[in-house]
């Protein structure tokens, strides 16, 4: 009976991960990934009695009270539409599900050694299967093969438009079943690292296949973390005098396939998308040779304009870290970003009014990004988002948790890998906590920190 229950629990977790990864699709206007997050929460709650002791910390209790009280004020003193109210509820559900699933997965991976290893083996099979899907969809988009309809809106400012899966002058990028290549890296890369560091046996096939899947995203985010992990691996090689060839193959596969890429209109100039740009396609294929484009080394550390704007916004707000409410963060960032543009529009309208006779809501002109006047922006960072939403209390809570972690755990050989997984989620473009984050962080903590006896560094 207990064995069947544990087997069912593992199946639910793997099923939930599968659903979370279906980010590009929705059913009856409900994103399938949301269903996966909810299933993770439901699965965790089935074993609440076993891990509730992890939620009784005084730091968590008092921190939650200090965070929640100002938010209650914002909720009851702000007029919200039905849609905004729904998103408000979802934001708090995300936080609650993160905490609950985090506690569940820590307890599960630490208390159930055999079941935890069996779960990781199932997740390993999922990673292999999903890597094949990534590679297939990558080829399907280039050669117009079958791909399930991506029926969820994209992630840019103009949310009602279709997802972008075509790059004319840049190499094609793998997205898998996500709406953005960076989302694929955020969710998949930590999972692969967890499997490699937790399971004793990870074969060459697994490392190369997952490395190709991640590398095809051509994500600077993936390259950046791969360089960090590679440096850490070289340090471990120096201290342990042991070579993990599988780990090297994973890193090299990611670096190679993320550095070198091919143009869709060079491989398949007759594709549906390329047919709309005949002159450009002719120029691309004029030489008659296959063109391989490579990223520069500097692209690994380039921050980009959008992230610089977020950093500037966060820096400017440090003087007054008051709680603004989660629903006001994007609006405040939009105000910060649009102030200079609004002034420019005013001056332009006063001097050459005929310039603004037509409104182009999806096209920028002049010297500024005029679309931010109409559409709210996401800060695309968890720390910035929750600091702006909860204020200085959130920063203080993070500091206390960090001090608590440092004082309770000695520096060990696997601790840096756990910190890298944390860093993945900390600087990812997804600005909210969720149940999946809780699952991966909890399993990583249980496997790499709490569940092992370490040799100190």
How would you briefly describe this protein structure?
With 457 residues, the protein is mostly helical. 62% of the residues lie in helices and 2% in strands. It has two domains: 343 residues, no CATH class; 104 residues, no CATH class.
Question: SSE layout and pairings?
Answer:
Layout: H1 2-20, E1 26-27, E2 30-31, H2 32-45, H3 48-51, H4 58-76, H5 82-111, H6 113-143, H7 181-198, H8 204-215, H9 220-240, H10 245-259, E3 260-262, H11 264-267, H12 278-284, E4 292-294, H13 305-317, H14 329-351, H15 382-390, H16 392-408, H17 415-426, H18 435-450
Antiparallel strand pairs: 1-2, 3-4
Helix pairs in contact: 1-2, 1-6, 2-5, 4-16, 5-6, 5-18, 6-7, 6-8, 7-17, 7-18, 8-10, 9-10, 9-17, 15-16, 17-18
Could you walk me through the main structural features you see in this protein, from its secondary elements to its overall organization?
Helices cover 62% and strands 2% of the residues. The strands form two sheets. Strands 1-2 form a two-stranded antiparallel sheet. It is built from 18 helices and four strands. The chain has helices at residues 2-20, 32-45, 48-51, 58-76, 82-111, 113-143, 181-198, 204-215, 220-240, 245-259, 264-267, 278-284, 305-317, 329-351, 382-390, 392-408, 415-426, 435-450, and strands at residues 26-27, 30-31, 260-262, 292-294. Helix 15 (382-390) crosses helix 16 (392-408). It has two domains: 2-302 and 409-450, no CATH class; 305-408, no CATH class. The model is unreliable at 361-367 and 453-457 (pLDDT under 50). With 457 residues, it is an all-alpha fold. Strand 1 (26-27) and strand 2 (30-31) form a beta hairpin.
């Amino acid at each position: 009976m207990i064995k069947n229950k544990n087997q069912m629990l593992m199946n639910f977790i793997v099923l939930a991960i599968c659903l979370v990864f279906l980010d590009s699709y929705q059913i009856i206007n409900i994103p399938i990934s949301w269903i996966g997050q909810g299933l993770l929460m439901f699965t965790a709650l089935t074993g609440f009695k076993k891990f509730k002791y992890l939620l009784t910390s005084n730091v968590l209790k008092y921190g939650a009270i200090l965070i929640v009280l100002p938010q209650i004020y914002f909720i009851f003193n702000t007029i919200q539409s039905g849609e905004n109210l729904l998103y408000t509820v979802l934001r708090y559900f995300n936080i609650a599900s993160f905490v609950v699933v985090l506690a569940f997965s820590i307890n599960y991976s630490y208390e159930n050694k055999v079941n935890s290893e069996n779960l990781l083996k199932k997740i390993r099979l999922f990673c292999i299967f999903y890597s094949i899907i990534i590679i297939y969809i990558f080829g399907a988009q280039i050669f117009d093969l079958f791909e399930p309809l991506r029926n969820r809106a994209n992630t840019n400012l103009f949310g009602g438009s279709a997802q972008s899966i075509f790059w004319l002058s840049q190499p094609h990028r793998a997205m898998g079943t996500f709406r953005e290549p960076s989302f694929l890296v955020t969710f998949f890369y930590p999972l692969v690292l967890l499997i490699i560091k937790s399971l004793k046996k990870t074969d060459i096939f697994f490392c190369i296949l997952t490395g190709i899947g991640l590398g095809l995203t051509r994500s600077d985010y993936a390259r950046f973390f791969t360089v960090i992990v590679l440096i850490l691996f070289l340090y471990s090689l120096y201290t342990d005098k042991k070579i993990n060839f599988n780990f090297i193959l994973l890193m090299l596969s990611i670096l190679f396939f993320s550095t070198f890429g091919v143009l869709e209109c060079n491989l398949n100039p007759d594709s549906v998308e390329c047919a709309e740009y005949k002159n450009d396609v002719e120029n691309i294929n004029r030489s008659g040779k296959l063109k391989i484009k490579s990223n520069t080394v500097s692209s690994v550390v380039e921050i980009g304009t959008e992230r610089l704007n977020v950093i500037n916004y966060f820096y400017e707000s440090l003087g007054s870290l008051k709680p603004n409410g989660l629903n006001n963060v994007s609006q405040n960032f939009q105000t910060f970003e649009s102030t200079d543009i609004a002034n420019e529009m005013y001056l332009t309208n006063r001097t050459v009014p005929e310039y603004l006779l037509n409104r182009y809501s999806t096209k920028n002109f002049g010297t500024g990004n005029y679309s931010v006047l109409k559409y709210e922006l996401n800060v695309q960072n968890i720390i910035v988002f929750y600091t702006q939403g909860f204020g200085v209390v959130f920063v203080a809570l993070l500091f206390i948790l960090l001090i608590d972690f440092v004082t309770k755990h000695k520096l060990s050989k696997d601790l840096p890998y756990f910190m890298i997984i944390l860093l993945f989620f900390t600087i990812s473009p997804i600005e909210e906590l969720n149940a999946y984050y809780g699952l991966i962080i909890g399993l990583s903590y249980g496997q790499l920190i709490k569940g092992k006896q370490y040799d100190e560094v």
